Amino acid sequence: MSLRKRLQSRLTLWKKLFKLLSFCSRNLSLAVAALSILEAAAGIAVLYLIKQLVDGISLQLGDTGGLSDTGQIFQALGLIGLMMVLTVAFQRMAEYARHRQGTEVADHVDRMIHERAIAVDLAFYESPQYYDSLQRARAAGSQRPAQVVTTLANFFRSIIYLIGILALMASLDWRLVVLLLLSMGTALVVRLHFTKLLFAWQHRRAQMERRASYLDWLLTSDHHAKELRISRLGGELRDRYSHLRRQIRTEQLAIEKRKMLAEVGAAGAAALIFFGATAWLVMRVIDGSVGLGDLVLFLLLFRRAETSGREFVNSLSALYDHQLFLTQLFSFLEVKAQLAPPAAPRALPSPVREGLRFHNVSFRYPSNEASALSDVDFELPAGQVTAIVGENGSGKTSLIKLLCRLYDPGQGRITLDGIDIREFDPVSYRKLFSVIFQDYACYAETVSENIRFGNIEAAHDDPRIQHAAGLGGATDFIADLPQGFQTPLTRLFDDGRELSLGQWQRVALSRAFFPQSPFIIMDEPTSAVDPRAEAELFENFRARLEGRGALIISHRLSTIRMADRIYMLEKGRILESGSHDELMAKEGNYANLFSRQARSFLSQPPAMKTPPI
User: Fold this and answer.
1) Could you say which DSSP state residue 606 is in?
2) 348-432+550-598 maps to which CATH number?
3) pLDDT at site 208
4) Across all residues in the chain, what is the average pLDDT?
5) What are the residue ranges of helices labelled H in 336-463?
6) Cα radius of gyration rounded to whole Å, the chain
7) What are the backbone angles phi and psi of residue 362, rounded to the nearest 5°?
């Protein structure tokens, strides 16, 4: 990249950053700048007043051999004390203003990251590149913008200090300014070099960090606690985690060691410069060409210059570091969803009369070579029950994702009442469906909230929550909970209760029944419930639908016999379709599969033989 393009890129980045920082109060930003300037000015004034005090004392001692005007000296001391108090006051007020501004910006960045994570397409979540970019964005924010506020304030404050210090030092001898700049320049080059080196390494390690975090989650969460103990996997996963952390630590420490040696060398060079300059000034004080106040001022200035120079170098290095990391943050925030609404979205049909239809739909996941669906013709009529059967990996869940427009088909089209669904706003279109996925969510919230999350726009006390619990078969066990519908379903917090898998699935079913949407989709809706609860659910299933269309996916063919139309999928293609009776009459794949399942329930197990004694 050319120098001009690099400068343009950095200018664009800083424009975005200042726009981000302007999120909080403009008056607060001005207060941060003003207080930082006042703090630096008061600090410089203290140094100058000390020089004046020393010169005054030295002059009185030289003229009379004693202090002839102590009032003037105490007046100067009082003024120095006042300026020191003001310096501390300005410093603390500036810190408060920076902290307030930083926390506001940090919370705003958190919200921006969450909004972007919600807005991106589902395909983004299914690629390692997404998780790498999210890891880098997380490393960049949300605290980075808050740190930038502090760093910028420190940077400008150190510049003001250095300008004042250099001006006072130039009044002593301009050559001292050159030596000071040389000392600071060496430290700056070293720091910037290793800042860039560390950033490049941190960019490469993003996936290692994610893998280590995943192993840590496996070891410390309750999700796999039973299996880890039974299979004795804990030690193996612990060792893998330790190996990853050791590799990360070794690489980082190698860079830090080189950085330490380089900075010690730069500090040694600065010490030699200080020793030489001080010795030269002492000789000038001895020969009378420089006053004692000038020597004291130099010592104070060099010490203050050392501190301010370190702040300047650290701030500039940190700003460079922030710039590199914030590039990752803004790159993540600029990711655009591909499933965007059309310029003029059409209104959804109300009510839905015909339903949905797939027209020769084919689909392949971006990261896969094989197609998940091929030339699929499929109908989901309004007000009817449709079912899909097929082995694992046959494309059933992929069909649901296309139906809900979480993806768009690669070929073919999907229509709603004859209108291509790409002509509708995706968010509005998805309100047509309530879905229980096979990997349904278990929210660490109350029973009531777990059901209400099916339609977040509903009121917290919506009476349909209890009605939906009845439709999902959850009313009986909810009544036995300590606080009924207000019982928290988690062990993470106080007063929470944990449910069995079957009870959780009935809560998820209730959440799917809660929205008054035209279609309800159930992916293995009874995989964890007992046969009695399953029979009760499907015994009066059409009445529970309350006029809605339904799509059911199940491996248990006994649960879908009542469907108006059944589709059999295999390797992304529809092999057969029809009612249960029609498919059995064909004596094809469906009939063969149903007969095998029926035999497994009807056949008697062989009698056990008594072993000989």
Assistant:
1) P
2) 3.40.50.300
3) 80
4) 79
5) 396-403, 426-430, 447-452
6) 36
7) -125, 150
